[in-house]
Amino acid sequence: MSARTTRFQKLDFAVAWDEADQRHVYLEEADLVIADNEIVHVGPDFAGAADAVVDGTGLMAIPGFVNVHSHPFSEPANKGLTEEVGSDKLGQSSLYEFLPVFGLDPEDAGPSTQVALSELLKSGVTTITDLSISRPGWLDDLAASGIRAVVAPMMRQGHWFTRNGHTVEYAWDEKAGAKAFEAAMQTIDQAMRHPSGRLSGMVCPSQIDTCREGYFREALQEARKRGIPMQTHACQAVVEFHEILHRYGKTPIEWLDAIGVLGPDLVIGHGIFLSDHPQIHYPHGNDFEILKDSSAAVAHCPTVFARRGMALNTMGRYMNAGIPVGIGTDTFPHNMVDEIRLACYVARVLTGNYKMGTTRHAFEAATVGGAAILRRPDLGRLAPGCKADFSLVDLGHPYMQPAHEPVRSLIYSASDRAIRHVYVDGAQVVRDGKVLTVDVEAATAGLIEGQRKRLKTVNQRDWAGRSADQLAPPVYGTRERLPQSRPVT
Question: In the predicted model, what is the mean pLDDT of residues 101-129?
């Protein structure tokens, strides 16, 4: 049976991949032609026949964004709660006091995931790396959305907690860790066999401080056996940096290197707090050089850390040194274009140097950079032989005008508002800005109910017995009424 061919004819622009120069380039008045789920032509004047022709006037085609780090299981339910919280005595992080208290019940993860997926698709994400907990229905939710997904079931041997708001402790359970490991490998194998052909896997020992050396070694072994990467959260908190230093006498980067895990198979979730980070003040290490020489990659998620006054130092420095960097949406809203923009701004502000976070740095991290980290050279670019994962941007949108430099207009002005249509694996998943594959209203209703249910019991999980409003005070207080206004005379 011959492939069905669709021609997107005379697009104003296509952000196409130049293989010879290894960079994206603009093509004007270009045709983008797909056959089933594969791109067969990018450029002017396609000479072949097409089963369907779509007028590309007023549109720009861009490659689908590749998201290398996301938590759709939990993050949508943190909306209104974690934007302005952090532990003053625990490095300003929200990890230890707040996230365990607010986190959703597992049975409510489905609606949360669906809401996140709808936001991702609308912002042009065609591939997500989903760091969640193994649960029934997870793979079905991902497959039904139409997105391309890398399943990274998180597993660990211990968990952190605080009894007082200024000390972090760890509870260890190796048996539970072994059980989670087994469940994670089963989930990954199911994903890699999934009939959709759009699911794959990544091994994910959750955090550097909740997994022992042997656990990491075994996880890396399983990743290599399957030919897939491994990701862990590391260098994500000041507390974690000093915890690893206290345990092993080494920085997190030094310890990962010493146990043989730091290398081209590893993706470091966040990778912020290296020995030379200005918030660490540890002149006794050489983490940046070790990381650079290792070929390990970094998943950069600027929004969640910017909320707490933290930033990678910096995207431009890492990428210029050859460290592979991808972009992720660690938190809500799951808007990849906003993450790209903030990655640029944060790098420039932190360094006082506008060249350390350029549009090219961030756009390439979100496309070809992420694809390279996932070992998928057929993603993140518009070129013959690549998967038909792309978005069509409305150049006529008021926030895109004037569209003198359309990628800049998209990132710095229009954001996801101008992303009109999105295709994954050749199938349309967003039409005229509306997600076709997710019942957003029903998912949102489920998310709201899940958050309400969880908030009722916040005081039972908080070390000090505080309510949700005490932990995350509302911006404004609520009053039954205001003083009566004066009568008009």
Answer: 94
